[in-house]
Design a protein that fits this description.
heterodimer, A: about 325 residues, FAD/NAD(P)-binding domain, 2 domains, five-stranded parallel sheet, 20 strands, about 25% helix, B: about 110 residues
């Protein structure tokens, strides 16, 4: 039986593979011209520093070997009970799994940090791209001597309508700080954080090694503003909340750890299929326990970051779980 | 000159551009465990000296880590080296070692 999988990121790919393994006929619809989603463009994965290719390439290879049909550069226009309407016509299917993922928070919305305005204010995604290209440097090509990371950019922030915790940025900040230490052994590296949330296996250990072995300094306080100073540097202001005094410093590079924001197409699914969204516009699963990959509609399912920020591992787990739920649903028809 | 009762206050901000961070760095290099402090406050909660004076070990060593050395020596002198803080520290930091090192490094501040 045919099942439509919307989105060809890690969740979508693994969902399709798991469905195929259960004897079903998945078809992947992807709006971009290539599969891989946000993972493409990332450099290494926490907490093991695993190169992205080691995760993505085997998935893509398996997809090719299994001959799973892929409709790339195809937009989904609507979900119906008997299929999905796309920009290339209707795809008939008995069930649909929405794996459309998330969007990266647009850092220009936090104008006070000057992203896109000042030189040398970059995002965590920009840094991954730089590392992928094999060159991390300031705009003038020189090496940064003092680097600051800011956690929670576009997370836990009412001002930009992002109430949720994006969950993966804390550990990404720790990972990237360690990577920057390797790039620039002589630099000073500071992470400005509100809370450090090391929820996953090996994360706390990584945080500790960042402090102890890599000399990363963690300052509790949110940077309130950044201002350019001559020479392409940036002056930042924060409160050192553990001391209770304001703090300022000039840095060569400011890296904003941008959060995961709900996919911009979520409102569209919600409207056309009558599905619910959470406060932060992620799709709301039937419930967060045994119904975490189900929607309020019996034939529409979810996997991955379409419902909330998640790690790669969690998205892959949900992909396997959703295949099982879809098979269960189709058996009952 | 008429005294209008106004004065110029010195800035309260911790200025990481002008502070001397070299001494702090020497302290980390000797005791890198100090960096692993998660600011739980167990040391200060259990501190014998802190119970009877304003001594706050967590705050003083955090100030030192930011290059704010003023009064750190005098503050650390309130410590009686009883070592209860070391017993309760969840990160296993050699807190008495930190006290002694800060006093040694900052004696002339």
């Amino acid at each position: 039986m045919k099942v439509t999988v919307i989105g060809g990121g890690v969740a979508g790919i693994q969902t399709a593979l798991a469905l195929k393994g259960l004897g079903l006929k998945p078809v992947i619809i992807e709006k971009e011209d290539t599969l891989g989603g946000k993972l493409r463009g990332w450099h290494k994965l926490f907490p093991t520093m695993t190169p992205v290719g080691e995760v993505l390439e085997p998935l893509l290879r398996e997809l090719r070997e299994q001959n799973i049909p892929i409709m790339a550069s195809t937009e989904v226009l609507g979900i119906e009970t008997d299929g999905v309407i796309t920009s290339h016509g209707k795809v008939e299917s008995r069930a649909t799994v929405v794996c459309s993922g998330f969007d990266l928070f647009d850092a220009t919305l936090k104008e006070e940090y000057g992203y896109g305005i000042y030189d040398n204010v970059i995002t965590s995604a920009d840094l991954e791209r730089m590392m992928n290209n094999g060159k991390v440097a300031l705009v003038d090509g020189t090496q940064p001597r003092r680097i600051a990371f800011l956690h929670c950019v576009g997370s836990r922030d009412e001002k930009v309508q992002q109430r949720h915790c994006s969950k993966v940025c804390c550990v990404t900040g720790v990972k990237q700080a360690i990577e920057m230490r390797r790039w620039f052994p002589q630099s000073e590296i500071y992470n400005f954080y509100m809370d450090i949330r090391m929820f996953g296996s090996g994360y706390e250990e990584m945080y500790r090694s960042a402090q102890q072995e890599h000399g990363i300094q963690f300052i509790r306080g949110r940077i309130s503003e950044a201002a350019p100073v001559p020479g392409g540097k940036v002056q930042i202001k924060a409160e050192d909340t553990l001391i209770g005094r304001p703090l300022k410093m000039t840095v060569d590079m400011l890296i904003l750890l941008i959060g995961m924001t709900a996919g911009c197409s979520n409102s569209h699914w919600a409207e056309c299929a009558g599905l619910e969204q959470s406060d932060s516009h992620f799709m709301r699963p039937l419930n967060v326990f045994e119904g975490n990959v189900r929607s309020a509609l019996p034939n529409v399912f979810y996997a991955g970051t379409v419902t909330a920020p998640k790690t790669i591992g969690e998205s892959l787990n949900e992909a396997n779980a959703v295949a099982f739920r879809v098979a269960e649903y189709l058996k009952g028809l | 000159m008429i005294d209008f009762g106004f004065g110029v206050n010195t800035a309260r901000a911790i200025n990481m551009d002008t502070n001397d961070l070299d001494t702090a760095r020497e302290i980390f290099d000797r005791l890198p465990d100090l960096q692993t402090c998660i600011a739980c406050g167990s040391c200060t909660a259990t501190c014998t000296a802190g119970a009877i004076t304003s001594f706050n070990f967590r705050k003083v060593h955090t100030l030192v880590r930011r290059g704010e050395y003023g009064e750190a020596y005098a503050e650390m002198s309130k410590c009686m080296l009883c070592g209860k803080c070391r017993l309760v520290c969840p990160r296993g930091i050699n807190t008495r070692g930190v006290v002694m090192l800060i006093k040694k490094k900052l004696g002339d501040y």
